[in-house]
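User: As part of a screening pipeline, I want to sanity-check one entry by hand. Below is the sequence and the SMILES for adenosine-5'-triphosphate. Please return the complex as structure tokens so I can compare it with the automated output.
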Amino acid sequence: MKEKKLSPMMEHYIKVKEENPDKILFYRVGDFYEMFMDDARLASQELDLVLTGKSAGVEEKIPMCGIPYHAANSYIQRLVKKGYKVAICEQLSDPATSKGLVERGIIKVITPGTYMDEVMDAKSNNYMASISISSWNVCALFCELSTGELKYQILDRSLISLEKALLTMDTSEIVVPVTLDKRWLAALEEMDTITVSLQKKENLENEDVKLLHENDPEIVKNALAQLMAYLKETQKQHIDHFMPVTSMDAQSTLVLDYETKNHLDLITSHSSSTKSESLWTFMDRCQSAMGSRTLKQWIEMPLINAPKIEKRQRAILTLKNDFILRENLKEHLAYIYDMERLASRMAYGNASPRDVLQLVTTLEHAKPILELAQKIESYPEFKETPDCHSLYIEIQNAIVENPPLTLKEGGVFKEGYNVQLDELRNISSKGKNTILEIENKEKERTGIKSLKIGYNRVFGYYIEVRNGYLNDIKEEYGYYPKQTLANATRFVTSELKEKEDQIVHAQEEKNRLEQELFTKLLLRIKEDLFDLHSCAKALASIDVLVSLTQLAIDKGYVCPVFHPEMSVKVIEGKHPILEDRMKKKKFVSNNWIMDENNSIELITGPNMGGKSTYMRQNALIVIMAQMGSFVPCKSCELPIFDRIFTRIGASDDILTGKSTFMVEMMEANVALRYATKHSLILFDEIGRGTATYDGMALAQAMLEYIEEVIQAKTLFSTHYHELTEMENTHARVKNVHVDVKEKKGEIEFRYRMIEGKADKSYGIHVAKLAHLPKVVLERATQLLKDYENIDNTSSYQPSLFVMDPIQPEKSKLMDRLHELDIDSMSPREAMECLYELKQLADEIE
Ligand SMILES: Nc1ncnc2c1ncn2[C@@H]1O[C@H](COP(=O)(O)OP(=O)(O)OP(=O)(O)O)[C@@H](O)[C@H]1O
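Assistant: Here is the complex for your manual check:
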């Protein structure tokens, strides 16, 4: 018996699938994208599709599911959001005219990092990162296809720093070299939210070299070459709408690492309370998506340069004082679409006529916005910003006021824009009249009143005559029968055919010409891409400045003052979000005052007393101040901080599954190693995760180290009351505590920070508030009395020993030496590394 073989189409499918094992293959068959075998099983589950079977030549049916091609976008979006890659295998030849198997091939691969449909979340970025590794360090080159942004970060050669950098940027996909160390690859693949793609090494194409600056390190060049090769492979075209790469230079911004951003709920809120929100969503009064994204960047990267901060402050002050200017700007900003993404989509070539309309609307308002913004004196660059007005005039002259959603429907261009298009439009619209004229003429000469001319896709135009009148058709009329129906016959005449050819031809020509003109228009827009991006950036900044002004006005915030000394004077500071959320109770404001010689505020007081809130509010005030915003307090004098370290609340490590205590120690370690005199450290109940004496000993040792060596401004909350003794022995330690009132065994929280130490913990009182069983509370009270009678503190000695300080530079040097993989270094890398080691060593002196 002859062995059954797979059908040629299935054989082709299997071949393509073998070449793309890590992608879900959308295989175009007629009006559907079909998925087969494992892909079909997976997609049917992920997309709730019905799994059917296809007879593909062999006995057993092959699992199959499909989606209509016109609805593919939403399915692709769902798969990509879940981290899958989708390869689109399209029909490349027309099934109607091709003989044998229709030619098919992959036209595009859509991945989490390359997805750039218009429905993507407008306010958030979708970064993908190309990772290149040398034996010395790691470069993460972040790119956003939808905005054309390229920026890099150079990190230590450590997996943890890479993972944190990727999480900080909310990276959806990474491209790594195929040669990547197996251990690293496995760890990166384990990260839940990131899709990993491998790429072979390629050289950087000449035209992409212009994206780099002369002094960009070699490792950045490698990352760019790898990224461009990957994009070419997946997008099947060379991407040429990127802006030149920029460095995410840590030196010019206040460093907030991944943990700090999380602990302070800067971008996403981690609290389970539905009322809570992040600082970003709280502050955001931007009218455009570009503005919201820029505000996010300002929050994540506050400045450390006083003139740059003051530039933003002065702009807010101008806008605050000029009501008319502010209101006029707001009026125009309401019409600003996502110009950054629109311009990139156009340069990429997948823009729709509606996108072009949105760009025109944006540009129409860009000019008055930039003109108005010239009044903001601290931003002289707004005077130089291109308003792209001539491009606006050109597009406006081309596009109708209300263009259709897609090009297919036609009617995108204005009358008078192109002579040839007008002529073709004339012919096809006249065509309808011509057909009507023929119908009337035929009715007259045959005398058949019911005769009519119709159209179908198979026969084109035809004359339909009811069968009862067939005898009235004379031979000289030249009627050729085309189709016989039950009660009528359809004919054509040579005149009808000739007119039909003209009409159909004009229609096809018209469509082709509109497509051609639209492509030309996109290319014209692409010529101004650079200007469009600078204009978009300026509009986004103006939007943020107006938004910050409105926030300051709505909430009565004040302008912070910066000084070179390391003293802090925040009068009546408030937690911006908590203050706003409190409806029934009033938020109690608190001063935060630390003079030059003060380094540590040791905060004691009962649980629920407001210690964490006080620490967080101070960190948020610092961040808001250094991003240029006004702040929630009565007056505010601050130094410029270089970095904020936080250890607040209990959390496990989402990366490596470390215990709460371990994470606490690791975070404390980072602060102790890298904090400087200009840093701000927030330690919330450090040491509570272990036995009391262990915890207390660790806490005191850390405090002593900060006090004696680092001298960073530190807010340290604790329930170890013994630590408050340090105030007497360590000059830079100051005790503060939260005020509570105790009345007949009940406590009343005052949320006010006052000088001095707390005398009691009130833990049992708080437990009572939580409605613990009465018997448990009674037993605890009794035990507490017993404990208090044993004098524990007499054995406790606040230490005065002087520690050998860890020099941050020295530990950095040692870390680097340990990390070195000398065998895999090229002579050049070895040389570069030697220079860097020498520099580190010099810094220690
Ligand atoms: N300044 C304030 N004004 C009004 N209410 C406040 C203030 N500070 C805190 N609260 C309220 O008290 C609650 C507890 O505050 P917070 O978490 O800061 O206490 P805590 O002292 O850190 O407690 P624990 O030691 O248990 O962590 C807050 O959720 C808020 O509702």
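Points to compare against the pipeline: The chain has five domains: 8-110, 128-248, 419-520, 561-795, 808-844. The chain has a mean pLDDT of 87.
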